[in-house]
Design goal:
The chain is an alpha/beta fold and about 350 residues long. The chain is built from nine helices and eleven strands. Strands 1-2-10-7-8-9-11 form a seven-stranded mixed beta sheet. Strands 5-4-3-6 form a four-stranded parallel beta sheet, sandwiched between helices. It starts with 13 loop residues before the first strand and ends in a 13-residue tail after the last strand. Bound molecules: pyridoxal-5'-phosphate. The site of pyridoxal-5'-phosphate (PLP) has 17 residues, from helix 6.
């Protein structure tokens, strides 16, 4: 039987990159999530959340999927919903790029556009309110809710986590993972620590994101950071946080192109910038594994456009320390349930 397209989600390549970090002998291995059929890591939670919903009866042939996302997750759900002949409405706001909006629509999804700002000056609360209204109005509507759905992190525990454990040729000392809903870091951290208990899990966040309690502020880079603390975040799973700016992320993207011929998305540049900042704190023979979430073509108008960041934002520094060690209490014991 010929497999269907979404059976190609996951099993992405793990490659060793040659990006030099000063004189350090750091080895860097990266999961290239751009190889998913929808072009990003979000194919994994989209397909897993939908499959689990079908398995437990919440999603049927007549379901109308609803999600608040302006980026990769909406594109991934739109692609899978089209293949499965399910209705999908994406709730988006003015921060969506033209390119992403067009992709969501090309896959046949409906768009609900929210443009009233909430009390915090963003659109998130307004988008959630619109989702709740759609759940009341649309027949058979189901909200996947990537911020709180445990199948989001499970998709990464069973996906990226399992594949890294299977494919790494040496034991990693550190994992660097970008954060937004925190599904990736929660799932990956848990699986890697089961295999390598001494591994240090480093979250890569952007200045202006509130995930780890720093003050919120303007952020331009899509895909990474958040203006609310995701319900599924459990900081016991994370050892350290490194903050990078939009400009540093942009420089990181250009380094990946220059040194590896790899055209990756904005947050892949954040990872490279974060490792660079951490070099003085890392052992000289550190072995790092990381996840590069998406491909660069979606960012031609942003991180690959030299006019994207205004001059005054280029020299911007974090208002707080750009590195933080998180206080540890006890780590949860159960594997995929917590
Ligand atoms: C484009 C992109 N998608 C997904 C992720 C992972 O985010 P999440 O925490 O939502 O799993 C990131 C994080 O860096 C990202 O940049």
């Amino acid at each position: 039987m010929i497999p269907n397209l979404y059976s190609f989600v996951g099993d992405t390549p793990l490659v060793e990159l040659e990006v030099p970090f000063g004189g350090a002998e750091i080895r860097l291995f990266a999961k290239l999530e751009m190889f998913n059929p929808g072009g990003s890591i979000k194919d994994r939670p989209a397909s897993f959340m939908i499959q689990q919903g079908i398995a437990d009866g919440r999603i049927t042939n007549s379901t109308h999927l609803v999600e608040s996302s302006s980026g990769n997750l909406a594109i991934a759900i739109a692609m899978i919903a089209r293949q499965m002949k399910l209705e999908f409405t994406a709730v988006i706001d003015p921060n969506v790029t033209k390119n992403n909006r067009e992709l969501i629509e090309i896959y046949g999804a409906k768009i609900e556009f929210v443009d009233e700002k909430d009390v915090e000056g963003g659109y998130l609360q307004s988008r959630i309110r619109r989702v709740r209204r759609l759940l009341d109005e649309l027949p058979n509507a189901v909200w996947l809710n990537q911020y709180a759905n445990p199948d989001n992190r499970r998709s990464h525990y069973e996906g990226i986590g399992e594949e890294v454990v299977r494919d790494m040729p040496v034991e990693p000392t550190h994992a660097f993972v970008g954060v937004s809903t925190c599904g990736t870091i929660m799932g990956v951290a848990r699986r890697l620590r089961e295999a390598w208990p001494a591994i240090r899990i480093v979250a890569v966040d952007v200045v202006g994101s509130v995930i780890f309690g720093s003050p919120g502020g303007q952020r331009r880079l899509p895909g990474i950071g958040a203006s609310r603390v995701p319900e599924q975040l459990d900081t016991c799973e994370i050892d350290e946080v490194v903050y990078v700016t939009d400009w540093e992320s942009m420089q990181g993207c250009h380094r990946l192109v220059r040194e590896e011929g790899l055209l990756a998305g904005g947050s892949s540049g954040s990872i490279i910038a974060a490792i660079e900042k951490m070099v003085p704190r890392l052992p000289h023979d550190a072995v790092i594994v990381t996840v590069l979430p998406d491909r660069g073509e979606r960012y031609l108008d942003t991180v690959y456009n030299s006019n994207w960041l205004p001059e005054n934002e280029r020299a911007r520094r974090p208002l707080h320390d750009s590195h933080r060690i998180l206080a540890k209490t006890s780590r949860p014991q159960s594997v995929t349930q917590s």
